[in-house]
Amino acid sequence: MDAKGIDRKKIEDAVRLILEAIGENPAREGLRDTPRRVAEMYSEVFAGLHHDPRSELEVSFHEEHDELILVRDIRFYSMCEHHLLPFFGQAHVAYVPADGRLTGLSRLIRVVETVARRPQMQERMTAQIADTLMQGLRPQGVCVVIEAEHLCMSMRGTNKPGALAVTSAMRGIFRTDAKTRAEALALIRPHLHAPL
Description:
five-stranded mixed β-sheet, two-stranded antiparallel sheet, 7 helices, 7 strands, elongated
């Protein structure tokens, strides 16, 4: 995924200023290419800012299927918008189709990837994935569960590596029908807290 709209030169200039601000010499051998490397990395990890995740759902097909579809253990990496430190984990995404409208399983993964590749909050990311699927697929309902480790809690602040944040977003039938919600969560539950 290539990021359009990202100004690499500005990022390079900013990284040089940060290095100077912490008392480093951006011209020394080990740091000389760091501004360029960070700009390349930011272009990749923030590529989702300039890509509409709904476009991933434009490819659909018709199949007489109105039962739960789940893709679990979707590994992702994102950046906490508060500290620009990574958070990473697994997303579990389920939907129940309506009117036989299905999409490829990889399309669900692409939605997660697109939404993750921007400055984020886990809570917002969870809701954005659910809302994107509701808008793009018009299913009976969507269930999204995300579990993640945040480096802003693991390597600084509370210094608690391994602590996981778990968020969920339920839409449509997953909100109104306890049996459907329970089915999805039962299929996800054995995989919650698997090693990241």
